């Protein structure tokens, strides 16, 4: 029976991928940071290894003897320097993958990761793709803007009927994807027989401009919703209110500018998931 190791298994993408793999009869090795999370996955029939993303030895144990591995790093919003944190994790992960030698590796990357500059927070994924480029069996899964990024706006939009948007202009459509579809693609790439693609780019069934996002909110919430564009001068205050450190604020602002200028775009032709923004918002609103 095949065995797959997954980091980030408590996040949306990792949880979806793990659940699908379990449903299909595969064994899972959950790479987690706490005993509580280890107990949760044990209860679901999975193995569990407790490892920090900067612990190369523990990660090597997690990646040894598996048929494939899913690797991701968080965005480190609350770190003084998100890029320095990511470099430490990439160094440990790279060492562990080279030592553990899983034959297939799916790396969660992002739209725009082909660029070394002008992408803000996405730049860490460009670094990761290059750092792992010499490891056999790596597929970088470049996902579009996560639809779940709108989760924090549901209460505000429901009460005010206004959707604040940093994405601009109103009519410019942005590639978006549900984390459910990203998780499905992770599971497919890990279990697909034969070779592996170097990159896979993934978006949802259609693209959404701010005015389309407002319309989706209106459909789900059953009320009129208007999008209002936040000027770039207002972004920093919003990011600071979310607890981001100064360097993270700078990185996120650059990323939004990259989307708005269309610098952040797919390099090739993206595959399409099936989940609509309306379906994602309906699920989020129900919770």
Topology readout:
Elements: E1 3-6, H1 12-23, E2 27-32, H2 35-43, E3 47-50, H3 56-63, E4 68-71, H4 82-100, E5 105-110, H5 123-131, E6 138-143, E7 145-146, H6 154-160, E8 162-165, E9 176-177, H7 179-191, E10 199-203, H8 210-221, E11 226-229, H9 232-241, H10 246-260, E12 271-272, H11 277-286
Parallel strand pairs: 1-2, 1-4, 2-3, 4-5, 5-6, 6-10, 7-9, 8-11, 10-12
Helix pairs in contact: 1-7, 3-4, 4-5, 8-11, 9-10
The side-by-side strand order for the widest beta sheet comes to: 3-2-1-4-5-6-10-12
User: What portion of residues belong to β-strands?
Assistant: 15-25%
Number of helices: 11
Give the helix/strand class: alpha/beta
What gyration radius follows from the Cα positions, in whole Å? 19 Å
E-strand count: 12
Q: How does the overall form come out from the CA principal axes?
A: globular
Could you describe the 3D structure shown?
The strands form three sheets. The chain has an eight-stranded parallel β-sheet with strand order 3-2-1-4-5-6-10-12, with helices on both faces. A two-stranded parallel sheet has the order 7-9. It has a two-stranded parallel sheet with strand order 8-11. The protein has 287 residues and is α/β, with parallel strands linked by helices. The chain is 43% helix and 17% strand. It has a domain at 3-145 and 178-204 and 265-275: Rossmann fold (3-Layer(aba) Sandwich). Helix 9 packs across helix 10. The mean pLDDT is 96.
